[in-house]
Amino acid sequence: MAVTEGTRRGNARIDIHASEIMAAAGARELHDGEVIVVGLGLPEIASVLARCTHAPRLTTLLEVGVMNPRPRDTPVGLVDSRSFYRATCWSGFLDVMGMNLHRGVVDAGFLGALELDQYGNINTTLVKNETGKVRYVNGSAGGNDVASLAKRVIVIMRHEKRKLPLAVAHITSPGFVGGHSRQELNLRGGGPNRLITDMAVLGFDPENHMLTVISLHPGVELEELKANTGFPLHVPEEIPATPLPTDEELRLLREEIDPAGTHLK
Fold first, then answer.
1. Which residues contact 160 (CB under 8 A, 6 or more apart)?
2. Strand-pair category, 152-156 with 192-196
3. pLDDT digits (tens, 9 = 90+) for 72-130
4. CA 1 → CA 68, 164, 219, 224, distances in Å?
5. Phi-psi region of 86 (alpha: psi -120 to 50; beta: other; left: phi over 0)
6. In whole angstroms, what is the distance from residue 141 CA to residue 93 CA?
7. Where is average pLDDT lowest: 56-65, 149-158, 236-245?
8. Mapped to the 3 state alphabet, what secondary structure does the chain carry?
9. Residue 68 class from Cβ within 10 Å (0-12 exposed, 13-18 middle, 19+ buried)?
10. Which fold has domain 18-257?
11. Could you give the count of Cα atoms lying within 13 Å of 151 in the half-sphere of its Cβ?
12. Are 37 and 142 in contact (CB under 8 A)?
């Protein structure tokens, strides 16, 4: 999906990809001075964009123990050494999960998902097809720790009805589970806070845990969003458009952060 936009760029028309809107929207959810744990792909790209723009003192942790990397040439795996470029520290998995998450100093966890349900539960373990056949994927890694212990959780993923079902096929990382409070579940983290997709930005209501539409990406209609969601959404009377990436954000994304377009196209 691409969004064509010309008015903000004078007379020139520029194709802006939905993934670029997602990365910019994700970056805006991160604040200067915070400590965050990020997954690979768009979460890492969004965190680098935030550090390059409005959040230079953002502390970014990868679960393998890498701190504040400036990845180059678009790494594709956790142990891809291109992820470690210019990192300020390389310790280990237990340091990130123990000394940071379990100690309660992580402000945000930034995760991807195969499936996410109405309560923000994440599935990255298995998928089922129409016949019920199961295909196993990668599982939790550090996702369960992040979802359980970070002060807030941001999820970024494609917006498809099969990926946003009423109930996930398997709870890998907990949200509000069956509508329970996090205190009932003895989970110290604050739980799901934002869902960023290629169609919209959505937020979790802390009272009823229902997803609320915060903004629609340019060119996306509300009925299209509803048709691609497997559960009811709370829709406010007025829904703003998601801000598009600025010229500088686009330059950084395209020329420095992911020039090959591995994750952004």
1. 228
2. parallel
3. 777 777 677 777 888 888 888 888 888 889 999 999 999 999 999 999 999 999 988 88
4. 31, 18, 10, 13
5. left
6. 10
7. 56-65
8. CEEEECHHHCCCCEEEEHHHHHHHHHHHCCCCCCEEEECCCHHHHHHHHHHHCCCCCCEEECCCCEECCCCCCCCCCCCCHHHHCCCCEECCHHHHHHHHHHCCCCCEEEECCCEECCCCCEECCEEECCCCCEEECCCCCCHHHHHHHCCEEEEECCCCHHHCCCCCCCCCECCCCCCCCCCCCCCCCCCEEEEECCCEEEEECCCCCCEEEEEECCCCCHHHHHHCCCCCCECCCCCCECCCCCHHHHHHHHHHHCCCCCCCC
9. middle
10. Glutaconate Coenzyme A-transferase (3.40.1080)
11. 11
12. yes
What is the CB-side half-sphere exposure of residue 8 using CA atoms within 13 A?
Answer: 12
- For residues 143 and 121, is the Cβ–Cβ distance under 8 A? no
Rounded Cα–Cα distance for residues 19 and 124 (Å): 20
Q: Does 63 participate in catalysis according to the annotation?
A: yes
In tens, the pLDDT along 127-185 reads: 888 888 899 988 888 899 999 999 999 999 999 999 999 999 999 999 998 877 888 88
Q: Residue 190: what residue type?
A: G
pTM of the model: 0.91
Cα separation, 254 vs 198, whole angstroms:
18
Q: Which of 20, 29, 44, 63 is catalytic?
A: 63
Give the integer Cα–Cα distance in Å for 194 and 182: 16
